[in-house]
């Protein structure tokens, strides 16, 4: 059976050009399997001539919690909603220094790799807090204050930025397959792939996942590391997941699929073209 960490069979279509890749990782142990995967992956990208910028959230001591004192560099405590306060700070160039630094990395990136262990079917809290604090209105989504254009999906600010998810998990390979008890992998990660990556305009790639990570041996680790290196060679050549665009007719004004699109079918997969 083809496992979720097997490499795609397609080969790169051209010699790789030098790009900038942001590698965001969320694992507390640098000497763990996740740490080795990260170091191997970054080395592979360097060998291709790419520039790699890191955000190792645990090593950085990243603060994942939104609070009044870290919404605005000027120290204002807004009486308005959190989202409005964050947008105001963004548009007035008053976001906190740690947030501004991460946003600069994202602005410069041609691809983003987000690596984490799957805990309780989701990402670690420190990584969720990175998205919460960095991907604020006025930066990653919202409405253009000059044109009124809604900045999401095909109109999102990160169009053409590739996004690859790299995860380890304890479940068996079949459990994240089409009939698996834990849910098919793309649907399990729908919130990240569709609700964050595609929503902000990125091109999400099929996730790279290592199941049964807690029970693998040295040979399995070596194969997994080799598989990840192979995926990274294809980072800018793979066909991304094609989620439906929001403003081109597939959806009603209530953001429900039009009746003539896959009539009678339901579930998360209907949002893939």
Structure overview:
With 273 residues, this protein is of the alpha/beta class. It is built from eight helices and eight strands, in the order E-H-E-H-H-H-E-H-E-E-E-H-H-E-E-H. The strands form two sheets. Strands 1, 2, 3, 6, 7 and 8 form a six-stranded parallel β-sheet that branches. Strands 4-5 form a two-stranded antiparallel ribbon. Helix 1 packs parallel to helix 8. The longest helix has 16 residues, at 218-233. The two termini are 26 Å apart. Residues 1-15 have low confidence and may be disordered.
Question: Which features does this protein show?
Answer:
single chain; 273 residues; alpha/beta; six-stranded parallel sheet; two-stranded antiparallel ribbon; 8 helices; 13% strand; disordered N terminus
Write a short abstract of this structure.
The two termini are 26 Å apart. This protein has helices at residues 33-47, 57-60, 82-91, 97-108, 125-134, 185-188, 190-198, 218-233; strands at 20-25, 51-56, 111-117, 142-143, 150-151, 162-168, 203-204, 208-210.
């Amino acid at each position: 059976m083809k496992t979720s960490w097997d490499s795609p069979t397609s080969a790169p279509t051209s010699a790789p050009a030098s790009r900038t890749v942001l590698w965001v990782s969320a694992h507390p142990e640098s000497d763990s399997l996740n740490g080795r995967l990260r170091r191997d992956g970054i080395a592979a990208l360097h060998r291709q001539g790419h520039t790699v910028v890191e955000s190792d959230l645990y090593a950085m001591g990243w603060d994942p919690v939104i609070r009044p004192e870290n919404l605005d560099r000027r120290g204002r405590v807004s009486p308005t909603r959190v989202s409005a306060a964050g947008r105001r700070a963004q548009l007035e160039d008053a976001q906190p220094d740690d947030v501004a630094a991460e946003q600069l990395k994202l602005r410069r990136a041609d691809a983003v790799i987000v690596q984490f262990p799957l805990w309780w079917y989701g990402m670690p809290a420190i990584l969720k807090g990175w998205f919460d604090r960095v991907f604020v209105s006025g930066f990653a989504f919202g409405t253009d204050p000059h044109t009124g254009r809604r900045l999401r999906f095909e109109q999102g600010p990160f169009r053409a930025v590739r996004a690859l998810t790299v995860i380890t998990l304890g479940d068996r390979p079949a459990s994240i397959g089409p009939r698996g008890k834990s849910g098919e992998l793309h649907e399990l990660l729908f919130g990240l792939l569709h609700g964050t990556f595609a929503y902000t305009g990125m091109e999400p790639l099929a996730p790279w996942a290592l199941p049964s990570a807690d029970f693998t041996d040295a040979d399995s680790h070596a194969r997994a590391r080799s598989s990840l290196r192979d995926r990274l060679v294809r980072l800018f050549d793979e066909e991304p997941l094609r989620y439906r665009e929001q403003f081109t007719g597939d959806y009603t004004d209530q953001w429900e699929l039009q009746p003539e699109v896959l009539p009678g079918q339901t579930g998360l997969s209907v949002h893939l073209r």
